[in-house]
Amino acid sequence: MSSGYQAHETRRNYGLLVAEGILFTVGLVFFDPNTVLPLLMERLTGSAVLIGVLAAVQPLAKGFAPIIAGNWISSLAYKKRFLVTAMSIGRLPLWILALALIWVPRAPGFLWAVLLLVIQVLFWFGDASGDPAWMDMVGKSVRHDRRGRFFATRQVVGGLLSVVAGIVVAAVLGLEGLRFPVNYGVVVLIGAVIYLANVGTFVGLVERPSSTSDRLPLGALFRGLPRYLGANRPFALTMGVLVLFNMARLAIPFYIVFGRQVFGLPDSALGIIIPVQMAGRIAGAVLWGVLGDRLGHQRAIAGVVLVSAVPSALALALTFTAPGSLAIVPFALLFFVLGFALEGGYPFINYMLAVVPEHERPRYAGLMGIGFVPAALAPVLGGLIIQFWTYGALFAITAVLSVLALIVAFRLPAAEPVG
Hints:
Blueprint: H1 3-29, H2 36-45, H3 48-73, H4 80-91, H5 94-103, H6 109-141, H7 147-174, H8 182-203, H9 218-223, H10 225-231, H11 233-247, H12 255-263, H13 270-295, H14 297-318, H15 328-342, H16 345-355, H17 361-368, H18 373-388, H19 391-409
Helix pairs in contact: 1-6, 1-7, 1-8, 2-3, 3-6, 3-17, 3-18, 4-6, 4-8, 5-6, 5-8, 6-17, 7-8, 7-13, 11-16, 11-18, 11-19, 13-14, 13-15, 14-15, 14-16, 14-19
């Protein structure tokens, strides 16, 4: 195959992967696990524990699915078919939830809660299963010194469009002619259409064969984890940061519920909160991308962890204030900074891609998911803390975990690309 044709394939894949990221970012506004879904679950059940269970699905999926998927595809020279299948399993069931909310609005609340949890499981486990193949495709299609710019482009454009999407969400939820939960069904339906296009970008990718390694029995894979960690100190430290960083997700699904229950924020406040959160994500995408490419992805990781401590500290300060008519202002600031921190996953990916051997990327990408396992328990624990303790205790514990993650992040060495 000529080098010119290979360059054309690389440019094609680069464009499709950028489009994929934009569509994913915009689509998630209509299925947002930090704003839309907690409010929906709260209105359906009124249970803080169930809100925590809902929020636990994503990190649980990120913790286990990539390990199995990464090991499975490690022996495959071509991974596109697996990638398209996994993403389709995750994205397409959104249509079921959307149409059920629209067509059967008077079903018992607990049935909606079960369906919402099932769709959330399919979405995030499908997405997480495709992660190792997706990372391998990014590794083959985007040069090391352009990955920060690549992720920044995806998120800046996606973030700008998501500001508009947030306004659309608030407008739909505020329509007097759409009763609950039909209004939420329309919101999810818009997201389902966007994710249909998102799946289409994976179909269009052109794949060249990857380096392969032997597929291991799952027992051997898990038993070999200490060996993988011991053989690659930068990767081991990254895992340590991830564990603490993701444990600090205790409070994330409860910021919006805290605002609703304690400060009386209406659902229509999402018209302000979602756009400012997306503005924070845009700012984060630019900063983390530039910082990673110019100063090193290990420094970007430290910056992400530092910023992640701010929302919990601000929320803790709010517990000492009285509700007022201007409560939307501090919550807008909180969600702006939260958006900044939520965009911080890509420095971890960029750092991992640089410090592990190319032929081991799928397996390390899978093992990296273990760093998300504690985060699966975090929101459930957060719900229990609220149920039996206070919001203040929840926000204080979250801040402490963020500080501990920052201490470990400062020990990360500079990334030296491995062939």
